[in-house]
Amino acid sequence: MDKDRPSATENASLFYLFQQRFSRHLSRPAVIGPEGTVDITFADLEEGSALYAGVLAKYGVQKGDRVVVQVEKSARALLLYLACLRRGVIFVPLNTAYTASEVDYFLENAAPTLLVCRPEDSRDLLPCAQRHAVRHTLTMDANGHGSFADAATGCAPEPHVEVLGDDEVAAILYTSGTTGRSKGAMLTQRNLSSNVAVLHRVWRWQDDDVLLHALPIYHAHGLFVGCHLSLFNASPMIFLPKLDIDMLLAHLPRATVLMGVPTYYTRLLSTSDFTRELVQHMRLFISGSAPLHRDTFRDFEQRTGQRILERYGMTEAVMITSNGYEAEQRIAGTVGPALPGVEARVVDQEGQIIASDKVGALEIRGPNVFKGYWQMPEKTQEEFTQDAYFKTGDLATMAEDGRVTIVGRSKDLVISGGFNVYPKEVESLIDDVPGVIESAVVGVPHADFGEAVIAMVVCKENRDPLAMTEEVMKVLNDKLARFKQPKKIFCVEALPRNTMGKVQKNILREEYKTCFSREA
Length: 520
Ligand code: AMP
Hints:
Layout: H1 14-22, E1 29-32, E2 38-41, H2 42-58, E3 66-70, H3 75-87, E4 90-93, H4 100-110, E5 114-117, H5 122-131, E6 136-139, H6 147-152, E7 169-175, E8 183-188, H7 189-202, E9 211-213, H8 220-233, E10 237-239, H9 245-251, E11 257-260, H10 262-269, H11 276-279, E12 284-287, H12 294-304, E13 309-314, E14 318-322, E15 343-347, E16 360-365, E17 372-373, H13 377-383, E18 390-398, E19 404-409, E20 414-416, E21 419-421, H14 423-431, E22 436-446, E23 450-459, H15 465-479, E24 488-492, H16 505-512
Parallel strand pairs: 1-10, 3-4, 3-5, 5-6, 9-10, 9-11, 11-12, 12-13, 23-24
Antiparallel strand pairs: 1-2, 7-8, 8-17, 13-14, 15-16, 16-18, 18-19, 20-21, 22-23
Helix pairs in contact: 1-8, 2-3, 4-5, 7-8, 10-12
The structure holds adenosine monophosphate.
């Protein structure tokens, strides 16, 4: 027996699970690029991940060490992820929109041994890496080239697959915190392997499936759902660098499954080139990360004859609920029952389970629920109940048959184009701008992004509102990822407050809810 291949009973490694599944299909394409040509086969994936594991070994990156990665989506970026899994190294992907000052915090918090960044960012990030004693910084560009790939030249591969336990951490994904501090959610081997196996069954993956993958791979949706399912199924992914409707339309004929955030579907529907004929061969359209509007669900069915399958999940638990596979089980406005093996309940403020169809806080328990927040034991404890349920922070109702409907977010989170924006973080930066007294940031409906960030700013007397608006935008431009920046800023005289002194954001949301539709 190959000594590098421990038996399934002794290795809970996610990489080992994938390897068991794809090793019989090594000649199949694994990643197809935007040009439609095969970037890598599963044989390349096996060899390439071993080679990249060799690079990690060369730089002294050991099991349990962190590797922070802020790179563009590419087949080689996927190999880097797999190399980490293979070696038991903790993968920490970062949104490519994060600025250097944001990455600085992640480097301090994750304390990685290695940072892999885009070549153009290395000048700004090197001082941050040095400040936080990151031992090595390597680069990878959108084609996978750079000093990481260079280091692989002549490097000895490390085909060994680390033997790991269920509870060992595979990845840390940062979710922004309402307090402004991001929290690193630790996802274990078991969290990820249990989730991929159950989704494979529930969504009835088939041997000849081809996933059209236009999501980013630094987020749970694109990485743990999209990539994992294709790896587990040993089937190809068409890797598109980003959402581009023309590219989606061009590649749909070769695909069988599309996963997207609701924006994908509204944009597809906005073009007359998206027709029933174009997608009649498609097996499955999945939506998640933000609420899918009932109108989108209805218009999509009218246009294509197919129903979008909506599911619900979050960074801390990957996928939690899903509508059923059969067409009649795909119901607009609901996210379906908890996945097999996952328990969900809706509780009142005292933690008591409430009657069906009444709104309450959604709590969940199961093998998919994360281990805790990295280096934040108190925060972790706060987010779990005594009987080990995780408080999702989402408000929901649950029908008698267990079907969950997400009603809103208890934590004021704004989801714009599928990305989370925590108002507090934006407000803190605005409040620091000279001339600003205070600010409030909320999300309002937006036809394209689902929600758009807007800010209400109270300025000191005698300030010119137009000049202040421009000044705030300029400051945010340098400090915040674009998706977090307000799409509109309103200078107001005062913020509405309740008797406890809290800003009443519901009033602001109501007042400004049509500020984008008014433009139409
Ligand atoms: P993230 O951690 O970035 O994956 O964001 C998780 C949050 O996205 C959840 O807590 C929900 O508030 C929201 N979310 C995800 N899927 C859905 C959905 N299908 N409907 C409504 N909200 C969703």
